[in-house]
Amino acid sequence: MHPSPPIQSQLQFLKLGGSLITDKTRPQTPRLEMLESLASEIAAAFRQNPGLKLILGHGSGSYGHVSGRKYGTRSGVNTPEQWRGFSVVWRDAALLNRLVMEALCAAGLPAMAFPPSAGATARDGQVEEWNLAPLQGALDHQLLPVVYGDVAFDSLRGGTILSTEDLFTHLADHLRPSRLLLAGIEPGVWADFPTCSRLVEQITPRSFAQVAANIFGSSATDVTGGMSSKVQQSLDMVQRIPGLQICIFSGEAPGSLERALLGEHVGTVIKAD
To answer: What is the pTM of this model?
Structure first.
């Protein structure tokens, strides 16, 4: 059995949540000023730490989630109508990605998109195969690879949707980042949802049972899961990848994203112990 590759201390993953970059209550409604601000903070972090390596991902928000729910794409694609829906979800996800890419490029970032629908295949809703050589090449040459929630052909379901968390789970197992940053609109995981007066500073597999009852799914349309699934996926990852730390925080607070990229603990930190 081959030993696991070591953690890459300078490599971080960042997800810009769909609730952060779109208005998830209104179909196809981007938050363009927020995108501009987030891109500026990412660029500022690179200026302060030129050695930073980053893979950026973003959710589909009020783009792919709305059409994905309409056609049931996540669960499987079989009928002619579902396959037409598959192409609609692809288009909607690509539309939002184009807006994200424009914001990143306007901030002076050397961003390149790697659409999962073009490079990854799935089996029962999880990444099965994905040639990561092009993405690794982008990292090696100080470019900014961008992935996003997208449709994928699935050997069991016909087609499905791979969330950014699904993609990051696969990428983390192969590329071993030191940190995974999940930027949304919530400042972290609430200890008393829905009152929302106390944040959980840290979650480990041992402490999870104490907060699990108060973690609920997203209140808006989200076909790939809300806060509960994010926390559970994060716990699985930190147990598989020793040394990995995951931060769930709000990207709306000015400067919070830049501070997180530069190593500060913001929001709720999830780690193995």
So the answer is: 0.91
